[in-house]
Amino acid sequence: MERLDKILAGTGRWSRREVKELVRAGRVSVNGVTARSPEEKWDRAGLDLRVDGVSVSGEKFLYLMLHKPAGYVSATEDPRQPTVLDLLPPHLRRVGLFPAGRLDGDTEGLMLLTNDGPLAHRLLSPKKHVDKTYFVRVAGTLDEDDQAAFAAGMVLGDGLACLPAGLEALPAPGEGIVTLREGKYHQIKRMLAARGKPVVYLKRLTMGPLTLDESLPQGSWRPLTPEELAALAALG
Ligand code: URA
After folding, report:
1. CATH class belonging to 63-126+209-233
2. How far is 51 from 167, CA to CA, in rounded Å?
C-alpha cells in the first residue's frame, strides 16, 4: 500500500504540493470515488486513478472532447494568440495533445484533442469518408441553387476543387447545416463566399461518430466516453 500523493507524484506530472491541491479541489478520483486525502493508502495494482476524469494509469493515448470557443487558434503553440491547449489544465498541456482537425480562430464547436496520430489520420483523411457537419449562418439567405452547387462539387476562383458537399437550409433565414468530407483551409467560408453569401457564424457539430455534447459549456472539455471511444475504434 502506498500513499495517494506518492503514487500521483510518481507519474512525474505533479509535485507533491500540486497533488495536495488537486485532491483538496476534488479533482482526483480513485476507483470512481472522489479522493478525500492525499494520505489515503492504496495498492497500485489495478487502481483506477483519475484526475479531472482522465485516467493517469499510464494509458498510451488520451482523447478529449472540447467545446471550442471563438478566440482560440487550433494549434499547440502560437506566439500571439491563445491556443486550444490553453483551455486545458497545465498537466494536460504536456502530454502531446493536438487538435484532430482544425477550426478557424473564430469558429466554435466540436474539437477532438488527442495524442493518437493514426486515429487523427483516420478521422481526417478524405479517403475514409468521415463526414463533419457544421451549423452556419450567412449574410443573405441559402437557397436551392446553393445546395445544388455544393452537391455538384464546387471549383473555387483560385482553382481549389471541393468534393461534393451537403447544404441543408434551416427555417431561419441564412441558417443551414453544411456537411463536408474534407477540411481545406477556410473551406466553408470560401465556398459560401463564392456563392456571394459571407459566413457570419460557424460552429462544428459532428465529426464522424462524435457529436458535440451540448451540456459542455464553451471552453470546457471532457474525456470521451467508452461508447465514443468504441465508435472511433470502429472507424477501422
Ligand atoms: N470551414 C471554414 O471555413 N472554417 C472552419 O473553421 C471549418 C470549416
Report:
1. alpha beta
2. 41
